[in-house]
Amino acid sequence: MTRFSFSLTATDGAARTGVISTPRGDIRTPAFMPVGTAATVKAMMPDSVRATGADILLGNTYHLMLRPGAERIARLGGLHKFMNWDRPILTDSGGFQVMSLAELRKLTEKGVTFRSHIDGSKHELTPERSMEIQKLLGSDIVMCFDECPALPADDKRVAESMRLSMRWAQRSRDAFGDRPGHALFGIMQGGVTEHLRAESAEALTVIGFDGYAVGGLAVGEGQEAMFGVLDYAPAMLPTDKPRYLMGVGKPDDIVGAVKRGIDMMDCVLPSRSGRTGQAWTRRGQVNIKNARHADDPRPLDEDCSCPTCQGYSRAYLHHVFRAQEMISGMLLTWHNLHYYQEIMQGMRDAIAQGRFADWEVDFHRQREMGDIEKL
Ligand SMILES: [Zn+2]
């Protein structure tokens, strides 16, 4: 049986490319993980998600534990079978979403009690329960249960929160046990304070994980502050394990993170934007709602090989968005996910060939040109 493993095949500056091997298939890194919050990447069939080039999906523990319930998914054969996706799945721990979505939260050393944002029912999440839920779901990559303060926060609050997360990381490790073929990732905290990041990295490395996430970023600190942390944080983590930046981001955030040594990312942005009429292209963002597209027979991006750009005009995309047709979200989501995966493939190739810096210059140059001229 294939065990979980990671091999680096090339580095270029701090940027890395490699392969994570799991019993459910390989994950090429740097990897972008589309988000399948409620056991679906919204508006996409699983085969279509795979066709965009995704090797792995992310599922949300918080949403799935509340509805339809982790025990129910386990009885139905696990999350992969339930949602008809047989490749790797990473699940978050639920911690971040409890903090951002749930009501009447109460945080103690033991864990968090809260009320569901769906029906007000009372629940508890602890490191032990989070490990149990992620096991019931059948997740391939399990995340430690952690806590993360919204930024800005003072150093004292960030330090207390980080140390609680490190105690929870040990409890997560103990509860996860030995599960060949499955991985447990630790999550580094410490806000934007370098010595707290170093303390967190040291604590996690002592416990020992299959991979390490840089947590507590993309929570309102801005790109400059995020890159500031990424200038030093990835190098504090073991070189031979995957590094995951959670909840990032826009195309230029992703490129900047890979440049600084990140191997994996996830974000709702390409799918969420698709449902609100926003497309991401090599030339930047396109708002398909704008009247300028109403008579435009050209595709979103003439050089894009996705089914949306191969078969549909901007005029059609504008029309179906205005008419609130479901195909609008489907077509824009497909294009956006395809574009994100194209960025990842471009970076993997560039790193392998030692030309990441040139690739990055070209990436920014095309974006700065802005959208194609109006007809
Ligand atoms: Zn396209």
From TrEMBL:
Domain tRNA-guanine(15) transglycosylase-like: 14-368
Cofactor(s) annotated in UniProt: Zn(2+)
Family indicated by similarity: Belongs to the queuine tRNA-ribosyltransferase family.
One Gene Ontology cellular component: cytosol
Keyword tRNA processing belongs to the record: yes
Subunit structure: Homodimer. Within each dimer, one monomer is responsible for RNA recognition and catalysis, while the other monomer binds to the replacement base PreQ1.
BP terms from Gene Ontology: tRNA queuosine(34) biosynthetic process
Domain of life according to the entry: Bacteria
The reaction(s) this protein catalyses: 7-aminomethyl-7-carbaguanine + guanosine(34) in tRNA = 7-aminomethyl-7-carbaguanosine(34) in tRNA + guanine
Pathway: tRNA modification; tRNA-queuosine biosynthesis
EC number(s) given by UniProt: 2.4.2.29
Binding of substrate, residues: 92-96, 146, 189, 216
Cofactor annotation remark: Binds 1 zinc ion per subunit.
Function description: Catalyzes the base-exchange of a guanine (G) residue with the queuine precursor 7-aminomethyl-7-deazaguanine (PreQ1) at position 34 (anticodon wobble position) in tRNAs with GU(N) anticodons (tRNA-Asp, -Asn, -His and -Tyr). Catalysis occurs through a double-displacement mechanism. The nucleophile active site attacks the C1' of nucleotide 34 to detach the guanine base from the RNA, forming a covalent enzyme-RNA intermediate. The proton acceptor active site deprotonates the incoming PreQ1, allowing a nucleophilic attack on the C1' of the ribose to form the product.
Name under which the protein is recorded: Queuine tRNA-ribosyltransferase
GO molecular-function term, one example from the UniProt record: tRNA-guanosine(34) queuine transglycosylase activity
Record keywords: Glycosyltransferase, Metal-binding, Queuosine biosynthesis, Transferase, tRNA processing, Zinc
Active site annotation, chain numbering: 92 (proton acceptor), 266 (nucleophile)
Residues binding Zn(2+): 304, 306, 309, 335
Region (RNA binding): 247-253
Keyword Coiled coil: no
Gene from which this protein is expressed: tgt
